[in-house]
Design a protein that fits this description.
Number of helices: 14
Number of domains: 2
Organism: Vreelandella glaciei
Keywords: Cell inner membrane, Cell membrane, Membrane, Transmembrane, Transmembrane helix
Subcellular location: Cell inner membrane
Largest sheet: 3 strands, mixed
Helix content: over 70%
Order of helices and strands: EEHEHHHHHHHHHHHHH
InterPro entries: ABC_MlaE_roteobac, Permease_MalE
Structural class: mainly alpha
Strand order of the largest sheet: 1-2-3
GO molecular function, one term: phospholipid transporter activity
């Protein structure tokens, strides 16, 4: 076995044959049997080594040679093995340099303040990248929408109606129930506070202003952000994992046209209607509390509502619904396209879509409230 790759005469060792990965195990065994190397890699042998008879050499064989002759001698291989081809000499030098580098490098130590600042910086960079992708995706959706505006045959009416049923009609019970209960709570708290001032009649105005301007559309948008945006992300993410989107593109179909626009249009139609349902349910909850706790009849409630509350408040609240709907739908679809292919990725991006949607809805609502206040609306 040893004579096939190693020939030893006194203090001279001649390496021959193919020192390649295919023969690595046998060559390693032969070196150990001839006691040329031991369990300490890189410790050179005291014998004179000749490489002239080597016919083939790859990385695996070069590692064994460096272990045999040592790192220093391997780096100077051109001085004592000039007959070896230059490619094999360069390989031995490269392996020697790699083996000479320390493997255990102590990581640099940073203070807690530096780590905290670095973490904040990473979060800000991630947030900027996220918002940049969102703006780019909004532009892509708007461009596709304008492109299809004059081509009604390309509209996916069946898919749009199906998504309206899923995101709008099926969400009516939960939106109505939630806003009804919140309206009752707001009326109860208002009556409790205003009773000390003898102004319990203004509980009607409190409930009307809060639900017509804010709570009706805001609660509906938050519910759809958790209910529908997550569904959009999971649906598109599952298609991305199964390579269905790649199949659509291979067939020459536009995923934005097929998957995104029907969902966006469905949300633009569904959320204003759900906001209207939420406003009515909130007012109904407030009317129930005022009727049971304050002895204000439904007729008096409606008369006060008609006298004190103008239609402007209703229009202000309803005007925010399309903006919320567009942002929720776009974020849900974008996170679905970001899915990498695993079930864990689907879950992570579904969570991210819900968090982003709720954050953006509340942020836009706050900015809109400041704008309408400055405008005097």
């Amino acid at each position: 076995m040893p004579s096939e790759w190693i020939a030893r005469h006194d203090q001279t060792v001649t390496l021959k044959g193919e020192w390649t990965l295919a023969n690595y195990r046998h060559i390693k065994t032969a070196l150990i049997h001839t006691e040329l190397i031991n369990t300490e890699p890189g410790k050179p042998t005291g014998a004179t080594v000749s490489l002239d008879a080597i016919t083939r050499l790859d990385t695996a064989g070069a590692i064994l040679i460096v272990e045999l002759i040592g790192v220093e001698k391997a780096r100077a291989v051109a001085d004592w093995a000039a007959e070896l081809p230059r490619e094999q000499q360069a390989l031995l030098v490269r392996i020697a340099e790699a083996m000479e580098a320390p493997l255990d490098v102590a990581p640099p130590s940073y203070s807690r303040i530096s780590q905290a600042l670095a973490s904040v910086g990473q979060q800000m960079v991630g947030l900027w990248s996220q918002q940049h992708q969102l703006l780019a995706f909004i532009g892509l959706v708007m461009a596709t929408l304008f492109h299809l505006a004059l081509r009604p045959r390309h509209w996916r009416l069946t898919a749009t109606v199906a998504h309206i049923q899923q995101s709008g009609l099926n969400a009516v019970p939960i939106v109505a129930l939630l806003t009804f209960m919140v309206g009752a709570v707001v009326a109860f708290l208002g009556a409790t506070v205003l009773q000390d001032f003898g102004a319990t009649i203004y509980t009607i105005d409190l409930v009307a202003f809060s639900f017509l301007r804010e709570f009706g559309v805001l609660l509906a948008a938050i519910l759809l952000a958790g209910r529908t945006a997550s569904a959009f992300t999971a649906q598109i993410g599952a298609m991305k994992s199964n390579e269905e989107i790649d199949a659509l593109q291979a067939q020459g179909l536009d995923p934005i046209e097929l998957l995104v626009l029907p969902r966006v249009m469905a949300m633009l139609i569904s959320l204003p209607m759900l906001a209207f349902v939420g406003m009515l349910s909130g007012l109904a909850g407030g009317a129930m509390v005022t009727s049971l706790s304050l002895d204000i009849s439904l007729t008096q409630f409606m008369a006060t509502l008609q006298k004190d509350v103008s239609v402007t408040h209703f229009l202000v609240g309803l005007s925010k619904a399309p903006v919320f709907a567009f942002v929720i739908a776009v974020i849900g679809c974008l996170e679905g396209f970001k899915v990498s292919g695993s079930a864990q990725s689907v879950g992570e991006h579904t969570t991210s879509s819900v968090v982003q949607s709720i954050f953006m809805v509340i942020l836009i609502d706050a900015v809109a409230a400041l704008f309408f206040m400055e405008m005097g609306w």
